[in-house]
Design goal:
With about 290 residues, this protein is α/β, with parallel strands linked by helices. It is built from 14 helices and eight strands. Helix 2 (about 30-40) packs across helix 4 and helix 5 runs parallel beside helix 7 (about 140-155).
Length: about 290
């Protein structure tokens, strides 16, 4: 509550702003959901991952399927009218039938937004060690592709808009804060380890909460976001360096924008980055169009 109050004191917040929260199912009861809504949160993303208890145990999640369902109901009853749930596919030992059952449960809950992510085994994680030791099988890429295509068909049939590679929503329920990233808009991250994109530069705050607080206590009072970023950089709160190169910014714009079903505008690339998209990538564009990918 203090954090949201501070934001409203420091910024002119649009009365219709999307104020989003991420939550683990096991941390939410009816009273907590209602309290979060009273504070001002109006959208929530719940990290369910699966409705199969065995797979949740394998992932090391603290909740079970029953708790996940209860969390969605608690948020809905608490006044949230924009709810997302996350599911994962391509998990070790996950069958197509298990995936279908999780999709069925997600559709039964009738949430406003659904995010589906294929498993990637990150370096230096317990999951990587389990696979390397043979305790878990390597993820099956072909099976994961079948799961993804099944989800595309099932969600489209249920009336969900597939507006981004991994995201589906009901009409008018697109995730506004995620669209900022995918459209290469500016955003400001507050807190230790938070990432920002301001003035053509990407940077992250120092990760230590103690050092972050100490640094901010000695910072001058800013009069604008630009002044604040400059002051914070001087005291070492954010990463150093100048704005990203034009080539890097345009590459990011392409990479993120092509994730969206709306695509990207060659005219906008030209206006924003002074790049002739068609002239710069003629062979790539031709090949992708030939394969029905662009």
């Amino acid at each position: 509550k203090r954090i949201t109050s501070t934001i409203h004191e420091a910024f002119d917040v649009d009365s219709a702003a999307e104020i989003s929260l991420e939550a683990n199912p096991g941390d939410i009861d009816a009273q907590r959901a209602a309290a979060l809504r009273d504070i001002g949160f109006n959208r929530v993303s719940v990290g369910i991952q699966s409705f199969d208890d065995g797979l949740l145990l394998m992932l090391g999640r603290k909740h079970d399927a029953k708790t996940a369902v209860a969390a969605i109901h608690n948020f809905r009853n608490g006044g949230f009218n924009s709810i997302n749930l996350d599911l994962m596919f391509g998990l070790p030992n996950q069958t197509l039938q298990q995936w279908e059952a999780s999709l069925d449960k997600a559709l039964e809950l009738d949430t406003d937004h659904i995010s589906l992510y294929g498993l990637t085994i990150e370096p230096n994680t317990p999951l990587e060690a389990f696979v390397e030791r043979g305790h878990l099988p390597e993820p099956d890429a072909d099976l994961a592709a079948d799961m993804y295509l099944m989800a595309c068909e099932r969600l489209e049939a249920a009336g969900y808009l597939h507006y981004e590679i991994s995201n589906w929503c009901k009409p008018e329920k697109l995730a506004r804060h995620n669209l900022i990233y995918w459209r290469s808009g500016e955003y400001l991250g507050a807190g230790p380890g938070a990432h920002s994109y301001v003035g053509g530069q990407r940077f992250e705050n120092m990760k230590s909460p103690r050092q972050y607080v100490q640094a901010l206590q000695s910072a001058p009072e800013p009069t604008s976001v630009t002044d604040a970023v400059a002051a914070m950089r001087e005291i070492g709160v954010v990463g150093s360096g100048g704005p990203d190169s034009n080539a890097q910014q345009s590459a990011d714009f392409l990479m993120m924008g092509l994730r969206l079903s709306e695509g990207i505008s060659a005219r906008e690339i030209s206006n924003r980055f002074d790049v002739d998209f068609s002239a710069k990538f003629p062979n790539e564009i031709s090949q992708l169009k030939l394969n029905g990918l662009l």
